[in-house]
User: Fold this.
Amino acid sequence: MNIVCLDLEGVLVPEIWIAFSEASGIPELRRTTRDEPDYDKLMRFRLDILQKRGMGIKEIQEVIDRIEPLRGAKKFLNELRSLTQAVILSDTFTQFAAPLMKKLGWPTIFCNTLEIAPDGMITGYRLRTEKTKLTTVRAFQKIGYKTIAVGDSFNDLEMIRAGKAGFLFRSTPAIIRDNPDLPAFERYSDLLAAIRGAL
Assistant:
């Protein structure tokens, strides 16, 4: 039995923090897991900026409501789900993901949770588990699944390498260069063909 594990941001939808950076006019928030391998360091950096600017969950959710899936993403996901089981493994948060899952046809997503004060300020975050993506892939393998993983960032590399097959999708030139053994794709049609070949 196979299961395909997909990253969310950069693979199926635009990067949420980049969209918020552009909408808010805060260029520092363009930094993502493509740029910073240490997720905790990245999140503390983001939350510190939000606190200083007096911005909270309301402002971010207003931007997320305007985000649409990447062109072709929903069709790709529908075709993939007709072939095999698929799940989204993301380091985003439940408070960010719901509107995007609706636009993608409610696929299954495993993600994290924000800690939000009564005034809407984001005070922290809780990971589902340590090394969320790798740990989840290993759990699927323990219950009999063979995993195929797709991602674009540093935090996807462990899950990509842990399974029977793994692919980079619309990744950065630096990540592609540093991981020459991983097939890298730019088009959903090519990615779907690669996944089909790995099933």
Remarks:
- The longest strand covers residues 85-93.
- The radius of gyration is 16 Å.
- The mean pLDDT is 95.
